[in-house]
Design brief:
The complex is a heterodimer of chains A (185) and B (69). In chain A, 21% of the residues lie in helices and 39% in strands. Chain A has 185 residues and is of the alpha+beta class. In chain A, helix 2 runs antiparallel to helix 3. The chains are: A alpha+beta (185), B mainly alpha (69).
Chain lengths: 185, 69
């Protein structure tokens, strides 16, 4: 069920508020902000409107989490705006590093002449295929659409980021089930 | 990254940046990566912006350019 509104910004702000409620119940009190233009909105962590990443305590040390989601809308016959994701970038970066270790990315429309997977994972990670080393940054490892709820789940379950509520699991499941987006088209 | 001008911060908070204001924001973020506006747009198109959170945010802002008035 997508987020809707009388305008793109109204629909995007509903989504932003939902994400912020979810973050407060799971891993951080840092809040997502909106950078709106006429036909699109960028939702991301910002401090005084400059991009920022949230510091997370993980079982492997401090890491920075960047959330970026570019939203657009389709307008139905009644004039209601239905929000869609045009692009997302979720980055996980070790403290003090200039480069993200993991980047989950999605583009609704791939640039002309490109044929890579629209939903993919990249990072400066070496994968060995037979006797050849391949860097994940040079591949587009397919992932399917990755809901941000699952990113948060990965942080809590696998990286042992302290949760802010004992209800984190049900909060994430409820959000995922209620607002599951079809994405992928 | 240097602070954004108050007017630009307030424009973002008020809603619906103009194309010129978006370009101004892009220029600020590009400068944090020691890039000009034009270099940032080219690197975004080529997929060669730095793989850090500023590069990611910059690429998403550049994607917004066609959607700005």
């Amino acid at each position: 069920m997508p987020f809707t509104g009388e305008s793109l910004i109204e629909a995007a702000e509903k989504f932003r508020d939902h994400i912020n409620d979810l973050l407060r119940s799971t891993i951080t009190t840092a809040q997502i902000s909106a950078v709106p233009v006429k036909l699109g909105v960028l939702l991301s962590f910002r401090a005084e409107q400059r991009p920022t990443q949230v510091e997370l305590d993980t079982r492997v040390g401090k890491m920075g989490f960047y959330f970026g989601q570019l939203c657009i809308s389709d307008i139905d016959s009644g004039g209601l705006h239905e929000l869609h994701t045009a692009e997302y970038k979720y980055l996980l970066t070790p403290a003090g590093s200039e480069t993200a270790t993991l980047r989950w990315e999605y583009k609704r429309v791939v640039p002309p002449g490109s044929f890579w997977c629209r939903h993919h994972l990249q990072g400066p990670i070496t994968i060995r295929f037979n006797n050849q080393d391949n860097v994940l940054d040079n591949l587009h490892l397919p992932t399917g659409y990755v809901p941000f709820e699952e990113i948060i789940r990965f942080f809590i379950n696998d990286l042992k980021v302290p949760h802010l509520s004992r209800k984190w699991d049900s909060v994430l499941r409820q959000s995922y089930d209620q607002f599951r987006r079809e994405l992928g088209s | 990254m240097s602070p954004l001008p108050k007017e630009l911060q307030q424009a973002i908070e008020r809603g619906a940046l103009s194309r010129d204001q978006l370009k101004q924001l892009i220029t600020f973020e590009a400068d944090a990566l020691s890039l000009s506006f034009d270099d940032a747009v080219k690197q975004a198109k080529d997929g060669t912006l730095p793989n850090n959170y500023i590069g990611a945010d910059l690429e998403l802002l550049i994607e917004l350019l066609p959607a700005a008035a």
